């Protein structure tokens, strides 16, 4: 159904290629697209006598393009606050994550993902990339619909009012040397990459808010001789291709021991890298790895809040950008769902790593959180407040306890997800006055998490 033409007057709007926000911008939308942008003179409100402003809705604060969460594992949200009571590392955390994975089915996953995606909408996220490998029953057998779990995620995103790129993930082995999947991992696998491709090909959602991409879970999970099958599947469909890369030093060491090269070099050798590929984390690359990523125009999705939560380390973000790697952002394990926090962490973590300030300008952080993220998920027509782009508009308060007195250009160093006041996705209001219009997010999160958490 066509969307009614709408006019919004943003107190400030961050327009493409502008180093800082523009005051008093009239944004006109029809059928989910931005049809006109009119920056008005002055900062004191609309000039008198402009007829077109009479039915424009005022947007106090700063209006940003929709934010994009490039890397999500929706079910990890059930672990928030439950995995911090003792010592350990990524591998001990993973055991707790598997316990949750073992308890999910299509119905409980729908309920949990619906609430998680709605929490994302509250944070200004209009598009999410779901790195999806919970394909089968806990014993590894297929559901009657082999893509029932993926269908639940697509439905969940529709309920939450956000767009979804379902990154159907190939996950075949438990280690770089090809050990078989065991325990909860059994539900991840399809046997081999050919059977993975057959199942993934059978799932083609007609929903306009969703599209399907591909993922190689990691070099631990897909044998070298099957990497190209996944890459070719994605390229034939002009679909995004994502891969966990060098998240842990152990992954690098094991790959060198088995293959005599780094994970990045192995992926390059088998055709995985390229302009439609996004490497997730890339926390521990060598200088040669950075060259391969830059020359192949492979993107990198940084997930700073998860990388610090799991004690993974700090990736070399500035060096990545300097060799031409486009950076995007994800909340990954959802220890935090806040793209403002992810964005400023790119700069602040780089300060910790180098003991120097001033690595990324505010507009660079905005680009990573919006334009680059949408492109990495296959939605190149989103993530910009521009004529012809999808009408995704996120309005952030400039009068909260966090943002009062902060100039609009400083919002990524001050605001939090709680400062998001209104969210529009494809021209439709999903969040108003800081509340989701169709999902009781706290109540649904509580119920969904209780249903899947071991006693």
Structural class: alpha/beta
Largest sheet: 8 strands, mixed
**Beta-strand level of the residues, as a percent range?**
15-25%
- Number of alpha- plus pi-helical segments: 14
Shape descriptor reads globular
Radius of gyration: 22 Å
How confident overall, as mean pLDDT?
94
How many strands in all?
Answer: 16
Lateral arrangement of strands in the main beta sheet: 3-2-1-4-13-14-15-16
Q: Distance between termini?
A: 45 Å
Percent in helix: 25-40%
Low-confidence stretches: none
Helix-strand string: EEEEEHHEHEHEHEHHEHEHHEHHHEEEEH
3D structure, described in words:
The termini are far apart. The longest helix is centred in the first third of the chain and has 17 residues, at 106-122. Helix 2 (106-122) runs antiparallel to helix 14 and helix 11 (339-354) packs across helix 12 (362-369). With 455 residues, the protein is of the alpha/beta class. The strands form two sheets. It has an eight-stranded mixed beta sheet with strand order 3-2-1-4-13-14-15-16, with helices on one face. Strands 5-6-7-8-9-10-11-12 form an eight-stranded parallel beta sheet. The protein has helices at residues 90-101, 106-122, 148-160, 193-201, 227-236, 249-259, 263-269, 287-295, 304-309, 317-322, 339-354, 362-369, 371-376, 441-452; strands spanning 6-13, 22-30, 33-39, 57-65, 67-72, 125-132, 163-170, 210-216, 241-245, 277-281, 299-302, 327-329, 393-396, 420-425, 428-432, 435-436. A hairpin with a 2-residue loop joins strand 14 (420-425) and strand 15 (428-432). 31% of the residues lie in helices and 21% in strands.
